[in-house]
Write a structure and sequence with these properties.
15% of the residues lie in helices and 40% in strands. With 300 residues, the protein is an alpha+beta fold. It contains one helix and 22 strands. The strands form six sheets. It has a four-stranded antiparallel beta sheet, with no helix packed on it. Strands 8-9-10-11 form a four-stranded antiparallel beta sheet, with no helix packed on it. The chain has a four-stranded antiparallel beta sheet with strand order 12-13-14-15, with no helix packed on it. The chain is globular.
């Protein structure tokens, strides 16, 4: 099973055997973002951000919409479940706020994150202190859920401690951000199991790579010809996938693995050329035999 969401106002659960939707959750507005908690958990959930100030929770097992989370003053733009805590959810909004939720509790909202660390994680989500000065674009939890990274339209990346609920004040500098269509969600990614832990940020037609704990930019990945919309890191394969408005999905691999990949591709091309040459040679032999048979018939 895999899950998709789109501007058709629907979240679809797909049957991978039949390649048809097994179920559809319908909403009144286009969907900006959705994220699914671990499917291995006892109760896998889908968090959905539409073009309104609510976040919605759908239960995959009961096929019901179970929660409507209220706390943002503007549209919810992004959602993210913690990897290590299937009930811990972060939502970001066009109001610059990041709210943390525990969906097991009747009073789900744990509070908000404040960039200046001036406000405590009080339940008063109506306060003006915000995580970003403009819309929150993307959220990503570290693998152990001890840290949360946020990226905002104010050109800032922020690293939060989910233990103390504080901004760690790591300085990543100003991130170039050219994409103006805020109805399209951008998704960053993280490789928190590597040493050091890395963050991958879409920035125009590039992907910026930062060390998570120091804020040092260590690389700029360039290959796309359009705005990069999403990055996804595969922890087992150690590959990074990226998609952009140029309609390409690219795979990024470590240099040594890429060299091996190139060698495999070259070996495959060599074998293909050998097979083609052999077929051409066999065809020439058959043509020669056919011509010899024709000449023999003419002599008779």
């Amino acid at each position: 099973m895999f899950i998709t969401a789109g501007t058709d106002c629907q979240v679809k659960l797909w049957d991978t055997h039949r390649m048809t939707p097994a179920h559809k959750f319908s909403f009144d507005l286009p969907i900006l973002d959705s994220h699914t908690s671990s499917l291995k958990s006892a109760k896998p959930l889908i968090a959905v951000a539409c073009m309104d100030k609510y976040a919605y929770i759908c239960d995959i097992r009961t096929l019901a919409r179970t929660h409507t989370l209220e706390g943002h003053r503007a549209a919810v733009t992004c959602t993210r479940w913690a990897n290590d805590g299937p009930y811990l959810l972060a939502t970001g909004g066009a109001d610059g706020k990041i709210l943390l939720w525990d969906v097991r509790k009747a009073r789900s909202c744990l509070g908000h994150l404040d960039s200046g660390n001036n406000a405590s994680m009080a339940h008063n989500v109506g306060v003006v202190n915000t995580a970003h000065e403009r819309s929150v674009i993307s959220l990503e939890f570290a693998e152990d859920a001890h840290h949360l990274v946020s990226f905002g339209a104010d050109h800032r990346i922020r690293l939060w401690s989910t233990v103390s609920h504080k901004n760690t004040m790591v300085d990543y500098g100003r991130v170039a951000f050219e994409f103006r269509d805020m109805t399209r969600h951008l998704q960053m990614s993280m490789s928190s199991q590597t040493q050091p832990s890395l963050i991958y940020i879409p920035s125009g037609d590039k992907i910026l790579v930062y060390e998570m704990m120091t804020g040092v930019k260590i690389a700029t990945l360039t290959a796309h010809f359009g705005h990069v919309l999403a990055c996804a890191y595969h922890p087992s394969l150690q590959y990074l996938f990226s998609g952009a408005t140029d309609r390409n999905i690219l795979l990024w691999a470590p240099a040594d693995e890429f060299k091996d990949f190139e060698e495999e591709m070259e070996e495959g091309r060599r074998k293909q050329l050998e097979r083609s040459a052999k077929r051409i040679a066999n065809g020439a032999v058959q043509m020669q035999q056919l011509q010899m048979d024709t000449w023999s018939d003419d002599e008779d």
